[in-house]
Design brief:
This protein has 171 residues and is of the alpha/beta class. It has a single domain, classed as Vaccinia Virus protein VP39 (Rossmann fold). 43% of the residues lie in helices and 19% in strands. The chain has helices at 5-24, 26-39, 57-65, 78-87, 123-131, 149-160, and strands spanning 47-51, 70-75, 92-95, 108-114, 134-143. The radius of gyration is 17 Å and the shape is globular.
Length: 171
Protein backbone atom coordinates (compact mmCIF):
# COMPACT_ATOMS: atom_id res chain seq x y z
CA UNK A 1 0.00 0.00 0.00
CA UNK A 2 1.35 3.39 -0.96
CA UNK A 3 1.01 6.00 1.77
CA UNK A 4 -0.16 9.41 0.71
CA UNK A 5 1.43 12.57 2.12
CA UNK A 6 -1.10 12.87 4.95
CA UNK A 7 -0.61 9.25 6.01
CA UNK A 8 3.17 9.70 5.98
CA UNK A 9 2.88 12.81 8.18
CA UNK A 10 0.56 11.04 10.62
CA UNK A 11 2.90 8.04 10.81
CA UNK A 12 5.93 10.30 11.37
CA UNK A 13 4.11 12.33 14.04
CA UNK A 14 3.18 9.23 16.00
CA UNK A 15 6.69 7.79 15.69
CA UNK A 16 8.21 11.06 16.90
CA UNK A 17 5.83 11.22 19.89
CA UNK A 18 6.21 7.57 20.90
CA UNK A 19 8.57 8.08 23.85
CA UNK A 20 6.19 10.57 25.51
CA UNK A 21 2.94 9.11 24.22
CA UNK A 22 1.91 7.02 27.19
CA UNK A 23 2.36 9.91 29.63
CA UNK A 24 0.06 12.05 27.49
CA UNK A 25 -2.55 9.42 26.62
CA UNK A 26 -4.95 9.73 29.57
CA UNK A 27 -8.02 10.00 27.33
CA UNK A 28 -6.89 6.98 25.30
CA UNK A 29 -6.46 4.99 28.50
CA UNK A 30 -9.86 6.00 29.87
CA UNK A 31 -11.60 4.97 26.66
CA UNK A 32 -9.38 1.87 26.42
CA UNK A 33 -10.46 0.74 29.89
CA UNK A 34 -14.09 0.86 28.78
CA UNK A 35 -13.25 -0.98 25.57
CA UNK A 36 -11.32 -3.69 27.41
CA UNK A 37 -14.30 -4.32 29.72
CA UNK A 38 -16.34 -5.23 26.66
CA UNK A 39 -13.62 -7.36 25.10
CA UNK A 40 -12.75 -9.44 28.18
CA UNK A 41 -16.34 -10.68 28.43
CA UNK A 42 -15.74 -12.89 25.38
CA UNK A 43 -15.21 -16.58 26.03
CA UNK A 44 -13.18 -18.96 23.92
CA UNK A 45 -10.97 -16.29 22.41
CA UNK A 46 -7.73 -17.70 21.04
CA UNK A 47 -6.33 -14.87 18.89
CA UNK A 48 -6.78 -11.10 19.16
CA UNK A 49 -5.44 -8.40 16.85
CA UNK A 50 -4.93 -4.93 18.37
CA UNK A 51 -4.90 -2.50 15.44
CA UNK A 52 -3.16 0.81 16.14
CA UNK A 53 -1.61 -0.62 19.28
CA UNK A 54 0.57 2.44 19.88
CA UNK A 55 2.86 1.75 22.83
CA UNK A 56 0.93 -1.40 23.72
CA UNK A 57 -1.00 -0.25 26.78
CA UNK A 58 -4.30 -1.84 25.66
CA UNK A 59 -2.51 -4.90 24.26
CA UNK A 60 -0.96 -5.52 27.67
CA UNK A 61 -4.26 -4.96 29.48
CA UNK A 62 -5.99 -7.50 27.25
CA UNK A 63 -3.15 -9.95 27.83
CA UNK A 64 -3.55 -9.59 31.58
CA UNK A 65 -7.28 -10.35 31.49
CA UNK A 66 -7.12 -12.95 28.69
CA UNK A 67 -3.83 -14.74 29.44
CA UNK A 68 -4.65 -17.76 27.28
CA UNK A 69 -5.19 -15.65 24.16
CA UNK A 70 -2.44 -14.95 21.66
CA UNK A 71 -2.44 -11.20 21.10
CA UNK A 72 -0.82 -9.54 18.10
CA UNK A 73 -0.28 -5.79 18.06
CA UNK A 74 -0.16 -3.82 14.83
CA UNK A 75 0.76 -0.19 14.22
CA UNK A 76 2.08 1.71 11.23
CA UNK A 77 4.40 3.94 13.28
CA UNK A 78 7.76 2.26 13.89
CA UNK A 79 8.46 4.45 16.93
CA UNK A 80 5.31 3.21 18.62
CA UNK A 81 6.26 -0.41 17.98
CA UNK A 82 9.75 0.16 19.38
CA UNK A 83 8.26 1.58 22.59
CA UNK A 84 5.79 -1.31 22.79
CA UNK A 85 8.55 -3.90 22.42
CA UNK A 86 10.61 -2.27 25.18
CA UNK A 87 7.69 -2.62 27.60
CA UNK A 88 5.87 -5.73 26.45
CA UNK A 89 8.30 -8.14 24.82
CA UNK A 90 5.87 -11.05 25.14
CA UNK A 91 3.58 -9.77 22.37
CA UNK A 92 4.08 -10.15 18.65
CA UNK A 93 4.15 -6.73 17.01
CA UNK A 94 3.85 -6.00 13.32
CA UNK A 95 4.33 -2.77 11.40
CA UNK A 96 1.54 -2.47 8.86
CA UNK A 97 -1.23 -0.18 7.67
CA UNK A 98 -4.70 -0.93 9.06
CA UNK A 99 -6.22 -0.38 5.63
CA UNK A 100 -4.67 -3.62 4.34
CA UNK A 101 -4.00 -6.14 7.08
CA UNK A 102 -1.27 -8.70 6.28
CA UNK A 103 -3.10 -11.77 7.58
CA UNK A 104 -4.85 -14.76 6.05
CA UNK A 105 -8.65 -14.94 6.22
CA UNK A 106 -9.90 -16.39 9.50
CA UNK A 107 -6.72 -15.61 11.45
CA UNK A 108 -8.32 -13.92 14.48
CA UNK A 109 -11.31 -14.19 16.81
CA UNK A 110 -11.35 -10.50 17.66
CA UNK A 111 -10.08 -7.28 16.12
CA UNK A 112 -9.71 -4.54 18.71
CA UNK A 113 -8.77 -0.93 18.10
CA UNK A 114 -8.77 2.05 20.44
CA UNK A 115 -8.93 5.48 18.82
CA UNK A 116 -6.93 4.56 15.73
CA UNK A 117 -9.41 4.14 12.89
CA UNK A 118 -10.28 7.84 12.75
CA UNK A 119 -6.95 8.31 10.97
CA UNK A 120 -8.12 6.16 8.05
CA UNK A 121 -9.54 8.08 5.10
CA UNK A 122 -11.95 5.43 3.77
CA UNK A 123 -13.11 3.76 6.95
CA UNK A 124 -15.95 1.66 5.43
CA UNK A 125 -13.57 0.16 2.85
CA UNK A 126 -10.95 -0.59 5.50
CA UNK A 127 -13.48 -2.30 7.76
CA UNK A 128 -14.85 -4.40 4.91
CA UNK A 129 -11.33 -5.63 4.21
CA UNK A 130 -10.50 -6.08 7.88
CA UNK A 131 -13.54 -8.28 8.39
CA UNK A 132 -11.90 -11.00 6.30
CA UNK A 133 -9.21 -11.70 8.89
CA UNK A 134 -11.84 -12.81 11.41
CA UNK A 135 -12.91 -16.38 11.96
CA UNK A 136 -16.59 -17.30 11.63
CA UNK A 137 -18.39 -15.50 14.45
CA UNK A 138 -15.44 -13.14 15.01
CA UNK A 139 -16.06 -9.64 16.34
CA UNK A 140 -14.67 -6.16 15.78
CA UNK A 141 -14.42 -3.79 18.74
CA UNK A 142 -13.32 -0.26 17.87
CA UNK A 143 -13.58 3.13 19.49
CA UNK A 144 -13.62 6.33 17.46
CA UNK A 145 -13.96 10.00 18.09
CA UNK A 146 -17.16 11.47 16.67
CA UNK A 147 -17.20 12.74 13.12
CA UNK A 148 -16.73 16.40 14.05
CA UNK A 149 -14.53 15.95 17.12
CA UNK A 150 -11.39 17.42 15.56
CA UNK A 151 -13.17 20.29 13.81
CA UNK A 152 -14.91 21.13 17.11
CA UNK A 153 -11.58 21.02 18.91
CA UNK A 154 -9.87 23.34 16.43
CA UNK A 155 -12.84 25.71 16.42
CA UNK A 156 -12.67 25.88 20.23
CA UNK A 157 -8.92 26.48 20.12
CA UNK A 158 -9.35 29.24 17.55
CA UNK A 159 -12.03 30.93 19.65
CA UNK A 160 -9.93 30.75 22.80
CA UNK A 161 -6.59 31.76 21.25
CA UNK A 162 -5.14 35.08 22.38
CA UNK A 163 -5.39 37.93 19.89
CA UNK A 164 -2.79 37.59 17.17
CA UNK A 165 -2.23 33.84 17.75
CA UNK A 166 -3.11 31.47 14.96
CA UNK A 167 -4.35 27.90 15.36
CA UNK A 168 -3.88 25.69 12.33
CA UNK A 169 -5.65 22.40 11.82
CA UNK A 170 -3.66 19.41 10.62
CA UNK A 171 -5.01 18.59 7.18
Amino acid sequence: MILNAISRRIRASFSDAAAQYEALASLHKEIGRELSRKVIDNEGVDRILDVGMGTGWLTNRLGFYLPEAQIVGLDFASGMLQEAQKKWAEFTVIQADARVLPFKPGSFDLLVSNLAYQWIEDLPAALRGNRDILREGGKIYITLFGYDTFSEMFRSLEESAPAGRQVRAFR
